[in-house]
Amino acid sequence: MASAEHETGGATGYIVHHLTDLKIGEGFWTFNLDTLFFAGLLGFIFVLVFKKAAESATSGVPGPLQNFVEMIVEFVDTQVKDSFHGRSALIAPLALTIFCWVFLMNAMDLLPVDLLPGIASLFGIKYLRVVPSTDLNETFAMSISVFGLIIFYSIKVKGPIGFAKEMLLTPFGPWMIPFNLLLKLVEELAKPISLGLRLFGNMYAGELIFILIALLPWWVQPALSFPWAVFHILIITLQAFIFMVLTVVYLSLAHEDH
C-alpha cells in the first residue's frame, strides 16, 4: 500500500492519507469514527480481560493471567499510595483504568502502518487511523474528564466557600483578588492542557516516524522499524504512566483541605 500511495500522491499524499481520520458530520459536530471505534474496542478488551481474571482468581497457585493482572494492580496501587494522600475509593480504580486504557491505545502504534488501513480499504473505507491517542480530540476528552473530577473534588472537600477562597485569596491575599484569580485560572487550566498535549504530541510524533519509515525502500524498513518499535515500547508505557501519575497527583491536590 505504501508504494501505491507513493505513486499516486507522492510522499506527502501518503503521509496526509495516514494522518486523516474517518469522519462524519461537519464543524463542531464532526465525529472521528475511527477514534471512537478503536478507543471503545480497546476499553472493552481491557474490561473483558480484567473481568475474566477476577472471575477465575484463586487463592491457590495463580495462572498466567491472574499473575499478570495482579502485577499491574499492585504496580498501580503502589503509585497511588505514594502520590495520593486523601481518602477516596475512586482513585485507585481510576488510575488502573487510565494506565491500562492509555497503554492499549498507544500500543496500536506498534502495528504495521498499512495493515489495518489496507484491510479497511478492501471494504471501501478510504481513511482509517488506528491509534486513538494520536487524535487530539481523544487526549483532550480524557484530560477534560480528569479536570472535571479535579473541580468536583476541590468543591466537595473544601466546600464552595473554601474553594472560592482558594481561587480568590491565594497566593497574595484579599488585596490582589483579580491577580490571584488570574493566576489560579492559568494554573488550573494548564493541567488539562498539559495532560492532553503531552500524550498527543509524543504519540503523534511516534506515528509520524513509523509512516516515514514505511516510505523507505522495503529492504531498509526492517533495519529501522524494529529498533524504533523496541524504543517506542518504552515511550507508550511511559506516556501511560505519566498520564496516570499526573492524574493522581492533581486529584491528591484537590483533596487537600488547607
UniProtKB/TrEMBL annotation:
SUPFAM superfamilies: F1F0 ATP synthase subunit A (SSF81336). Its main location: membrane. This is ATP synthase subunit a. It comes from the Bacteria. Belongs to the ATPase A chain family. It is a multi-pass membrane protein. One of its GO terms (cellular component) is proton-transporting ATP synthase complex. GO terms for biological process: proton motive force-driven plasma membrane ATP synthesis. Pfam families: ATP-synt_A. It is found in: Cell membrane; Membrane. It comes from Candidatus Methylumidiphilus alinenensis. The chain crosses the membrane at residues 28-50, 88-104, 140-156, 199-220, 226-253. Keywords: ATP synthesis, Cell membrane, CF(0), Hydrogen ion transport, Hydrolase, Ion transport, Membrane, Transmembrane, Transmembrane helix, Transport. GO terms for molecular function: hydrolase activity; proton-transporting ATP synthase activity, rotational mechanism. PROSITE patterns: ATPASE_A.
